[in-house]
Design a protein that fits this description.
The chain is mainly alpha-helical. It has 23 helices and six strands. It has helices at 2-17, 19-42, 74-82, 96-105, 118-123, 125-130, 146-183, 191-237, 241-284, 293-312, 321-346, 352-391, 397-441, 447-454, 459-467, 483-506, 521-550, 558-583, 585-601, 613-618, 624-636, 642-664, 669-681; strands at residues 54-59, 64-65, 71-72, 89-92, 110-114, 136-140. The strands form two sheets. It has a four-stranded mixed sheet, with helices on both faces. It has a two-stranded antiparallel sheet with strand order 2-3. Strand 2 (64-65) and strand 3 form a beta hairpin. The two termini are 38 Å apart.
């Protein structure tokens, strides 16, 4: 240890002896921070300036004239509503072609063009539902700036959401408003009948809504069962690890083969069933003479056998919709076949047997075969979706619990929301039924009065309710003060690596062994490393101080932010110093390459999950991700022991650096000298 500190004290004296060298060292300690500060400041709050991003608005729509003579143009109304929006710079134009050309030339980042017929479709939803929807064309110039295109994509989505809300409101206003319009004209001939017709249409529409909601809520049971089964299997199989995952993948492949075989068997059996039904029908056709009772019974038994074989392939109580339809259809067909057999045994001349056989064939073609095909298709799709899940399951088994719990919560929340909506619609449908019945049962002379008395309510209230069915409450966890503060870990960590690169570029990594002839490899490594470590700690302190006091990134734990930077600098400097010490100029080049790989694949900007697979496989072997995650914990808030775990993972790289600097340097010293001599001979390098 004494030799190590002697080398360190000698380095300090050498630096302080010359003012020029001291200035360089001070610059080394402060310059890397500029990289972090400039980038953090540039990204501080970019989305607050989106009002400068220009998006053109134009319309080809001429509008329509309503029944009351009023001219409306929904496209112009939308443009008027958003033209003064401060979040984006909308530029209304009269000529759609000018807007499109402006996007091509780069004058605008994007353009939104309302196509001809937009207003008509907004006011004739019954045609739009069956044929087309109100159409908008969106143009974006990705070449000009890829990030700006993402902003304008969001603008287009928001505008579309607003238009959809207006569209829904217009549709419901017509549903609930037409009745009021009919009542205003009760004194005209046939007005009561017209109003009653409007009410019946409204009642039928609400009934359809109720049916749709009921189907969605019924599916909740299937989803919940699947989630519960997944949770149970996860709990049982967690301890088996990767071996179970490999087995599961194999089981999936086997299941795919099995379901393929089952599919062929089902197809074969249904074709056999079709043939057996045709044969039975031919036998029962008495146009050629008396019915052969024995032959008919034999063919009826054949139909029954095939149906019972098919039914045995399904569970007693299938959980999927397609499975239940298949099972119910088979049960019905079996009952029909047994009825045919009973008739044959009692009175083979009864004509209803032919009707039962035709019903069997109809059930086979229209219900059984499509539902069986859908059931097989659902199973195949489920198996296909299982493959990517199993491929990544090895590293995420522990993360599945909260996902399943969250999914269960979402299903419950959705069911609760739809239940509330259904609780509103069901009484409304009942009330409309009552009104319709009372009006229909009233005397002709009293119908108008009964209708006016019974029908009440505000169409605007209904349309407003249906246009805003769900209110979403967002909770942002670990939210930093700005986007720039969120990017602080990424740019600060890069700055510390850049600082380490600057150190090995301007400072000598080798100890003068003439002064210390008996020095050992560990003494030489740590003796010179201490001065690198000291300057690196100055770099870390300056970077963090600027982040906190100059840029005001407001970390939750300022001192832990400094600690994460200090440990990061210690590890980075050791790793860069060791590679340079062991491999010379090749080591210096290597640290540059390592930095470039880490910038792209450290999840500092984009989540690692959306990057190419190669980055997800190698980023675990580089220090950037652990350093960034440790500083994120300090800035945004702690979760459990993640901060300590990240620092411990970083220290593994420090041990690797020490091993390279102590044990690898000497064996490669000859190679390093050989390459240095050859490079010197070129008189270029």
């Amino acid at each position: 240890m004494r030799t190590i500190f002697d080398i360190f004290k000698n380095d300090i004296r050498a630096i302080t002896k010359y003012i020029f060298v001291l200035i360089i060292v001070i610059a080394l300690g402060t310059l890397p921070s500029l990289y972090a500060w400039i980038n953090i400041y540039a990204n501080w709050d970019p989305y607050s300036e989106t009002g400068n991003v220009e998006v053109a608005l134009a319309s080809r729509d001429a509008g329509i004239d309503l029944k009351n003579g009023q001219h409306v143009n929904s496209a112009d109304e939308v443009i008027a509503d958003v033209r003064d929006d401060e979040d984006i710079a909308y530029r209304p134009l009269d000529d759609p072609e000018e807007a499109i050309e402006g996007v091509r030339s780069g004058r605008f980042y994007a353009a939104i063009v309302f196509e001809d017929g937009f207003t008509y479709d907004m006011h004739h939803f019954e045609e739009a539902i069956g044929d087309r929807q109100p159409r908008i064309t969106y143009y974006t110039n990705i070449k000009k700036n890829p990030v700006a295109s993402k902003i304008t994509d969001g603008v287009a989505d928001n505008l579309l959401a607003d238009i959809n809300s207006k569209y829904l409101r217009s549709m419901l206003d017509q549903y609930f408003g037409d009745a009021d319009e009919a009542l205003e004209n009760l004194d005209t001939e046939g007005a009561v009948d017209a109003a009653l017709e409007q009410l019946i249409g409204t009642r039928d529409a609400i009934h359809d809504y109720n049916e749709s909601i009921a189907q969605i809520r019924t599916a909740k049971g299937d989803v919940t069962t699947a989630l519960n089964n997944a949770q149970k299997k996860l709990d049982k199989g967690r301890s088996k690890g990767s071996a179970d995952i490999a087995k599961a993948e194999k089981d999936v492949e086997n299941a795919k083969k099995t379901i393929q075989s089952v599919s062929k068997t089902i197809n074969s059996e249904t074709e056999s069933l079709r043939t057996a039904i045709d044969d039975l029908k031919q036998t029962l056709d008495d146009s050629q003479g008396p019915i052969d009772k024995e032959k008919a019974l034999e063919r009826t038994d054949r139909v029954l056998t095939i149906l019972e074989n098919l039914r045995a392939m399904l569970p007693e109580d299938p959980q999927t919709t397609a499975g239940r339809i298949s099972a119910d259809t088979m049960d019905m067909m079996i009952s029909n076949a047994k009825h045919i057999k009973t008739l044959l045994q009692s009175d083979p001349t009864q004509p209803e047997m032919i009707t039962d056989v035709e019903a069997l064939k109809q059930l086979l073609d229209e219900d059984l075969k499509p539902s069986m095909e859908l059931m097989i298709s659902d199973i195949k799709q489920a198996l296909e979706r299982t493959k990517p899940i199993l491929a990544s399951a090895g590293g995420v088994l522990d993360d599945i619990d909260p996902v399943i719990n969250s999914a269960d919560s979402i299903v419950d929340s959705m069911d609760s929301t739809l239940g509330g909506l259904q609780a509103t619609l069901v009484p409304l449908e009942t009330k409309l039924n009552d009104i319709i019945e009372q009006v229909q049962n009233a005397k002709d002379s009293d119908k108008a009065e009964v209708l006016a008395h019974l029908l009440g309510g505000d169409a605007d209230e209904y349309s407003s309710f249906f246009a805003n069915l769900v209110e979403v409450e967002a909770h942002e966890l670990y939210k930093p003060v700005s986007y720039g503060a969120a990017m602080t870990p990424f740019y600060s960590i890069i700055a510390l690596w850049v600082g380490g690169v600057m150190l090995v570029t301007l400072m000598n990594c080798n100890v003068d062994r003439r002064k210390y002839p008996q020095i050992t490899e560990p003494q030489g490594f740590f003796g010179r490393y201490l001065i690198f470590f000291l300057i690196g700690q100055i770099q870390a302190a300056v970077v963090v101080a600027g982040d906190v006091f100059l840029l005001h990134c407001s970390p939750v734990h300022p001192w832990l932010m400094w600690l994460s930077a200090a440990v990061t600098s210690m590890v980075f400097v050791a790793l860069i110093y060791a590679l340079t010490l062991a491999f010379g100029d090749i080591g210096r080049a290597a640290v540059i390459v390592i930095m470039m790989i880490q910038i792209a694949g450290s999840s500092g900007t984009y989540p690692i999950e959306i990057l190419p697979d190669i980055f997800e496989k190698i980023f675990l072997f580089f220090p950037f991700p652990y350093a960034i995650n440790a500083m994120r914990e300090a800035i945004c808030g702690m979760y459990g022991h993640d901060f300590i775990i990240c620092l411990a993972q970083l220290m593994v790289f420090f041990l690797c650096a020490a091993a390279i600097g102590i044990f690898v340097r000497k064996p490669f010293s000859g190679v390093k000298q050989f390459m240095y001599d050859k490079m010197k001979e070129t008189e270029v390098m």
